């Protein structure tokens, strides 16, 4: 069985790759059923994923505890079809022909799980819209 279509690749980028981009990547991986290749990175990666983000995602059955913030590379952007930025401003490389979206979301850094829940829920809604836009026939 040969297929001509390649899975779309989405890269989520934020500064620390410790909260928003990790939650978005986890939701996209979980909700897309393997139909979309998912990456995440940060322009200045943190040492670990935000514990409040880990806790908020655990509440919805998604385990982020083993994730590690990754550094943003030019190659990661070049290899992605869609690049979604979350507050990284001009530090994100730009390549013509890519689909870019900037998701303005509150930064969960330094906040407790109560403050992270609404950010998590907004990310889920945006990810569901993204999946719909990428899987239209």
Protein model, in words:
With 137 residues, this protein is an alpha/beta fold. The chain has a single domain (9-127), classed as 3-Layer(aba) Sandwich (Rossmann fold). The protein has 4 helices and 4 strands; from the N terminus they run E-H-E-H-H-E-E-H. It starts with 8 loop residues before the first strand and ends with a helix. The mean pLDDT is 91.
Secondary structure: elements and pairs:
Blueprint: E1 9-14, H1 20-32, E2 37-42, H2 51-58, H3 74-78, E3 82-86, E4 99-102, H4 113-134
Parallel strand pairs: 1-2, 1-3, 3-4
How would you summarize this macromolecular structure in one to three sentences?
By secondary structure, the protein is of the alpha/beta class. The protein has a single domain (9-127), classed as Rossmann fold (3-Layer(aba) Sandwich), CATH 3.40.50.
Main features:
single chain, 137 residues, Rossmann fold, 4-stranded parallel sheet, 4 helices, 35% helix, globular
Order of strands, widest sheet: 2-1-3-4
Count the helices. How many?
4
Overall spatial form:
globular
Total strand segments: 4
Q: Helix/strand/pairing class, anyone?
A: alpha/beta
The radius of gyration is: 14 Å
For the largest beta-sheet, the strand count, sense and barrel status come to: 4 strands, parallel
Total individual domains = 1
Helix content: 25-40%
- Span from first to last CA? 19 Å
* CATH topology term: Rossmann fold
What is the CATH class name? Alpha Beta
- Give the H and E element order: EHEHHEEH
- In round numbers, the mean pLDDT is 91
Query: Spans of 5+ residues with little confidence (pLDDT < 50)?
Result: none
Fraction of residues in β-strands: 15-25%
Q: Do you know the CATH architecture? A: 3-Layer(aba) Sandwich
The CATH homologous superfamily name equals Response regulator
């Amino acid at each position: 069985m040969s297929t001509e279509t390649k899975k779309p690749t989405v890269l989520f980028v934020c500064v620390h790759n410790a909260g928003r981009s990790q939650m978005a990547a986890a939701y996209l991986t979980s909700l897309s059923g393997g139909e979309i290749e998912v990456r995440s990175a940060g322009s200045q990666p943190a040492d670990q994923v935000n514990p409040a983000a880990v806790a908020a995602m655990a509440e919805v059955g998604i385990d982020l505890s083993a994730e590690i913030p990754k550094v943003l590379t030019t190659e990661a952007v070049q290899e992605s079809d869609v690049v979604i930025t979350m507050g990284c401003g001009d530090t994100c490389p730009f390549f013509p022909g890519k689909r870019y979206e900037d998701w303005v979301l509150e930064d969960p850094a330094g906040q407790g799980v109560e403050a992270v829940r609404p950010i998590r829920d907004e990310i889920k809604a945006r990810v569901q819209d993204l999946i719909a836009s990428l899987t239209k026939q």
